[in-house]
Amino acid sequence: MRAAGRSVRTRLRDRIAASDPGLLRLTAGLRTVGAIALTLAVLATLGADVHLLVAGAMAAMVATFAIREKQLGPQAVTLALGLPVALASVCLGAVLNARLYAGDIFFVVLIFCAVYCRRFGDRGTALGLIGFQVYFLSLFVGATLSSLPALCGVIALAFCSSALLRFAVVPATPTAVLQRLRLAFRARLAQLVSAQLDLLDAGTDEMDKALEAVRDGTARLHESAMMIQARLEEGTPDESAARLVQRRIADAEIAAERLGLLLLTARTAERADTLTLHLPGAPAPSVGQAAVPDEATATLRRDLQALRTLVLRAGGGDSGTALAHVRNRLLGYRDEENLPPASAAVQDVFRGIGESARAVLGLRIALDGPQDESDDSPATARSREELDAEDAAIDGGEEAEPQEETGLRRPTTRAAVQVAVGSSLAIAGGELLSAQRWYWAVLTCWIVFLNTASTGEILVKGYRRLLGTVFGVVAGIVLAGLVGQHTWTAFALVLVLIFAMFYVAPLSYTLMSFFVTAMLGLLYTLLHTYSLDVLLLRVEETALGAACGVAAAALVLPVRTDRRTNELLGTVLERLVSVTEAAVGQLSGGPPDELLDKARDLDQALADLRAATQPLIHPVTPLRARRHTARYVVALLETCAYHARTLAATAELLPTHPSIAADPRLRGAAARTVRNIETIAVRVADQHAAALVETGPSIASLLGSDAGTPRYGRITDRVLRHLERLDEAVVGLARPLDVPVAAPQK
């Protein structure tokens, strides 16, 4: 019974870790709700009135969510600096509330400065956010000179409560966050293996659903890997340890993605394209028949289940003869003599399982240190020796500082000008709608500019906020009617809604806006200013603020979505060239390069492009052909990035791996692919450029290889496979991007 209970707790922990990597959303929600609850408890003990309770709740929320640094020391400094900024802001709000024009002018200047401060990093962003939100707080509660001393005391209390929750009750050190992210990576890796197991067993009518699950699992695993990479420097003791973890995370991700592709190929009647794993909604390749329950398939099913067990047990402190036996059997598939009798495609899957087991072993050694080697088989011992040699060769390197734009071309300056103009329009229009609550339009205009960089992104964000606000108004009406004048019941519901708001914020901006608006309905009830007209006015002001933000973005120093996506596409292509050239150069016998850093930069550039294309692929976008094109291009680029990452990972094995040797012919064979990427980049930058994408013989034939269909087992053939797939994907990019393709020479 005790073991069963522990198993249930473990499964629940893994499920939570996979759904909320690093428990970042849970931590943010608990910390914010705790700070608000503590502030309210102290104020209630002191007998504060409802206005001060509302002000304390809002100030505690701002003081908690505004801080963005990862290290506790910088967080403390920013919080300490934020208190005088907040006090100055509320004092100015109390003084200027009654002065119409002076107050409006100051509010616009404050908004400009708050956005401009983003150029100074996380601390500048936090201080600007605190200054704006506390000034808004003063407008919301109607701050006056007579109430100013009490308000200042409430804000100071709120900041102290936030500090107590952040540093004592719900601390989140970089090391602890990174440890939870590793747990999430392991849980998501196990989920991906489970999805691959379902793909093995799926019937012909279930393949599309099973493939979609594998596709989602692959994307979620990559998301976890990116989150870990973003926190490695702060969460590891030194640069060498960070690079070691980065390498092992990359190995595990690549091995898992390769295993899915090999399994899909084994299940289908034709060669599976890597693009199938990256293009949402793409149908599964034709399936000859359902999985045949022969001996090889049964063994494959057993070993996929064993791999999932190995992933789940890795890093959990579990050891023993049974686990060692499973690990030894799976690692044995790296040797040809241990492969079971089966078709070539199925044997490739067994090889993929062996490589995945090696990646899991490397990940466990990197995260948990040396392991018990008493039960190692020869294959396991060899894998350990390879991993040890690779670990010893990993060293740190320096990254070049990116060139920063100046003047109005700097994103923060441009955004500050845009939001100042939009806020001016929102103030003018908002006061026409309501002389008392015009600030809601300004708040919406401010918010739609947060974390956006193009007119299309601002339009989509404004639409989502308006949609969430409309539904939130309905919820606010229902909740206000249920709560009535029960103050503490209303505050309890406010805490629940705030937690939900922070928990869903990274997942859905519409849901976040819904919870915010429902919460405001309760706050209006507490302030005895609730009415249906007030909530309807909230919708009108939100629509006005979104419209003003879109108008300012479209008319003042506009950055059109096409222009931004083209710029980011050029960056992705540039970094793809960098990774490919460096990897092929090293595989050809050239000097070592910072391949891990280059691959990480490529992944980050691709993530930025994926985010920037959201306005193009949003369901409300009327241009369906354009939406499909954007999805197809991003999927092709993800395919290119996968092959480039794999080439980089293989190239890094060269200095130490006993079975990999440099081949000087690779540089010449890959030259056409590199030229084609550069050609596409030139055409993206200038549509009138005379540029042609080259086609020709396969990469294998350029090397004089007889491996027309390269097998998985040999390293050289594996490199050829990835080079060929990369070459095919790059040529495939030409059509949707309108780049002419030269006819192959006969």
UniProtKB/TrEMBL annotation:
Record's protein name: Integral membrane protein
Start and end residues of each stretch annotated as Disordered: 368-411
Principal place of residence: membrane
Source organism of this protein record: Streptomyces viridochromogenes (strain DSM 40736 / JCM 4977 / BCRC 1201 / Tue 494)
Cellular compartments annotated: Cell membrane
Spans traversing the lipid bilayer: 21-44, 50-67, 76-95, 101-117, 129-148, 439-459, 466-482, 488-505, 512-530, 542-559
Keyword entries, A-Z: Cell membrane, Membrane, Transmembrane, Transmembrane helix
Compositionally biased region (Acidic residues): 387-404
Membrane topology term: Multi-pass membrane protein
Family, similarity comment: Belongs to the YccS/YhfK family.
Top-level division of the source organism's lineage: Bacteria
Domain Integral membrane bound transporter stretches: 426-551
Signal peptide residue numbers: none
Record's GO cellular component terms: plasma membrane
Listed Pfam families: FUSC_2 (PF13515)
